[in-house]
Amino acid sequence: MELNSYQQQAFDYQRPNIEKFSKRNWFWIIFYLLWIIAGGYALYLQIAKGHGVTGMRDNVVWGLFIVNFIFFIGLSYAGAIIAGLLHLFKVPWGKPIVRIAQMMTIISVIVGPVFILLCVGRFDRLHHLFFYPRIQSPMTWDVMAVLTFFVGAVLFFYMAIIKDLAVYRDANLKIPKWRQKIYNILALGYRGAASQKRHLLISQNLLALIMIPLSIIVASILSWIFGMTLRPGWHSTIFGPYFVVGALYSGCGVLIVAMWVYRRMYKLDKYFTDKHFVYLGYIMLALAAGYGYFTFSEYFTHWFGSEKWDSELIHKLFSPGEYGWWTLFANLFGILLPILIVAIPATRKVNLITAAAFIMVIAMWIKRYLIIVPTLETTLLPMQDTRTEYVKYAATWPEWVLTGAGIATFFLFFTLVSKYVTVVPVSGLEEAEPHFTHHPHHQPAPKKEEVNPA
Q1: What SS3 state is found at 453?
Q2: Secondary structure class of 452 (helix, strand, coil)
Q3: What DSSP assignment string belongs to 426-440?
Q4: Which residues contact 286 (CB under 8 A, 6 or more apart)?
Q5: What are the sequence ranges of the domains in the chain?
Q6: C-alpha pair distances (Å), 380 with each of 56, 234, 315, 376
Q7: Which has the closest alpha carbon to 6: 357, 427, 402, 346?
Q8: Among 402, 405, 336, which residue's Cα sits nearest to residue 63?
Q9: pLDDT for 341-398, tens place per residue?
Q10: Are 326 and 338 in contact (CB under 8 A)?
Q11: What angle do CA 70, 323, 355 make, to 5 degrees?
Q12: How confident is the model over 136-146, as a mean pLDDT?
């Protein structure tokens, strides 16, 4: 594999990151593993003692687990759409961040469905979901959609890293022999021949064209699980685009935060420049405006319609004694704050955009909570002589520990993947691209005609 001077420079700069694990890497890996072990113990208690150790009861049958599922699976759909669009439209400034978006897609589609399994009371009957499915159930549609999406996401990511795997194979990295063999096998004999490039590009284009509409479809199917019920707050025709825009919005925020973390950890300032943050900030602003419109439409139509069940739900969402403060936080910091930070030139800075994105991601998680729990607490039939804990939901410590374990797994995968492939795709930088880097210490790359062997 031959690289131009700019690609060689990018590879040499990131080479130490995949050759060794630093003490800081090991510290975080051990920290995440401890969280996962604690989550394993909480799962054991849930299996041994039943769902009574959670806050889920007859009314509120879904809690933190479904909130986490919707959140993580939404990140996966967002990563696929963003990566697919950047690839198809050949956006020059988007080349360094495509890999992070693809990593987010793969990791989220692995972590998210695990939370669905945590809601299953009988693991010994899990195979019934595949052997005896009810095709008329939206839950079955979602299982088939997520599995299809997972296969597509793996292929999309793999096709994107084949060139880089060939670079690692030929670079004489200071790594164990087993890793070198894996790179050699996974590179599939890629040598950069014209026919190989053509076939690989066609495959990537086709997968990108498939993954974008597939992400929209599976996100819509997830929304139909809610929209096809007759519960207040869920029975809505707008939930399809609402979920798609919400997934893209939160995914854009996570992408900004991940880019900032990698930039600080691996000193990738010359590749993740201020311009990348500003451009993603513009995208975040547009998505915030769209998501804010859908949110206002939902609240306003339910309030103005004055149906009894919808009115009860709206009262819960806006009453300070119920969920009013959480609703205020979700809308103020999840929608208005990012718009203001990006729209005002004086605050359009890297750290402020990242901080707004981080707060927005938290607010979007809370928004998912507000979609699920208040609706389930709003009973359709009058209930008498029922204990409060059977109507009101309060998450227990096993649920919080398992949530933390899921987040730790998410971070652990991000840490490990970045130690086996370069965060910035080396072969993806097909042109010397110093024109879109605004970092003050960045030196212009030599001309493309200077070619060095990998």
Answers
A1: strand
A2: strand
A3: TTT--S--GGG---T
A4: none
A5: 2-379+388-432
A6: 18, 13, 15, 9
A7: 427
A8: 402
A9: 999 999 999 999 999 999 999 999 999 999 988 888 877 666 655 666 677 888 889 9
A10: no
A11: 60
A12: 77
Q: What's the whole-number average pLDDT of the chain?
A: 85
The single-letter code of the amino acid at 10 is A
Q: Which amino acid is at 212?
A: I
Burial class (CB in 10 A: 0-12, 13-18, 19+), 143: middle
CA distances from 211 to 87, 149, 151, 155, 278 (A): 12, 8, 10, 10, 26
- The string of DSSP letters for 297-332 reads HHHHHHHHH--HHHHHHHHHHH-TTTTHHHHHHHHI
The H-assigned helical ranges of 194-273 are 194-227, 239-266
Cβ neighbours around 265 below 10 Å, total: 16
Query: What is the CATH superfamily name and number for domain 2-379+388-432?
Result: Formate dehydrogenase/DMSO reductase domain (1.20.1630.10)
* DSSP letters spanning 33-85: HHHHHHHHHHHHHHHHH-GGGSS--SS----HHHHHHHHHHHHHHHHHHHHHH
| 138: pLDDT strictly greater than 60 | yes
Q: Is the pTM of this model over 0.70?
A: yes
pLDDT band with cut points at 50, 70 and 90 for residue 240: confident
Task: For residue 278, name the pLDDT band (cuts at 50, 70, 90).
Answer: very high
Give the pair of three-digit tokens for residue 211. 């993954």
